[in-house]
Specification:
By secondary structure, the protein is of the alpha+beta class. The protein has 2 domains: 1-62, Zinc/RING finger domain, C3HC4 (zinc finger) (Herpes Virus-1), CATH 3.30.40; 64-110, no CATH class. The protein has helices at residues 37-45, 64-98, and strands spanning 25-27, 34-36, 101-104, 107-110. The strands form 2 sheets. It has a two-stranded antiparallel ribbon with strand order 1-2.
């Protein structure tokens, strides 16, 4: 192919390399722009949702392994929050015991109530 006859449709607009027959290409459904699959995958994996050329919505979901990793991280964060709340609850209970309070349900009551003499 003569270098002067290359058109915009012959090259990936992300990496600017010419498509060859061995590379996998991906054409977006909304705008019909075509890119190397590995180039557009990097864009999607970075969290971008719009075509790099025309900014129309790509309607592409990240690969399942990335979605799974995100869910695992969210679950890990939620578990850490639950553990931290539990530790605070235990520490508060220990402190209240030291101060002479007993827990009844979720209410702390003084173990030895003060008798007020009239």
């Amino acid at each position: 192919m003569d270098e002067m006859s290359i058109t915009i449709s012959d090259e990936c607009c992300i990496c600017l390399n010419i498509y060859n027959e061995t590379e996998e290409k991906l054409t977006l459904e909304n705008c019909r722009h075509t890119f190397h699959k590995h180039c557009i995958d990097e864009i999607v994996n970075a969290g971008h949702k719009n075509c790099p050329l025309c900014r129309s919505n790509m309607n592409i979901q990240p690969p399942l392994e990335i979605q799974s990793d995100c869910r695992r991280i969210e679950n890990h964060i939620e578990m850490n929050i639950i553990i931290k709340k539990f530790i605070c609850f235990i520490m508060l209970g220990s402190l209240m015991s030291l101060l002479g309070f007993t827990i009844y349900g979720f209410v702390y009551m003084k173990t030895n109530p003060i008798n007020i003499q009239h």
